[in-house]
Amino acid sequence: MSAKEQHDTEQAHRRRIAARLARIEGQMRGVQAMILANGSCEQVAQQLTAARRALDKAFYDMLACSLVSHVEASADLDDIRASTGELARLLAKFG
Asked: In this predicted model, what pLDDT tens digit does every residue of 25-46 receive, in sequence order?
């Protein structure tokens, strides 16, 4: 894959993640409205769980994008190992 194709693919992936985050933002506004309208605790918890899972998916998709871009950008096995090691560290810390 050429550098331009890789850049275009990464940018498209970032746009999809940004769109997912915008949907999550809308979900959170809906949760706020439910709370202010005295929605049931169970309904609020359900919506918060859905938003949290969507946010987790965005997080993992972002890490996967990083892994793919590092692997595709390098033919050096040691560099790939270092990249995957760093991503494993991030998953352990934030995942």
From this structure: 999 999 999 999 999 999 999 9
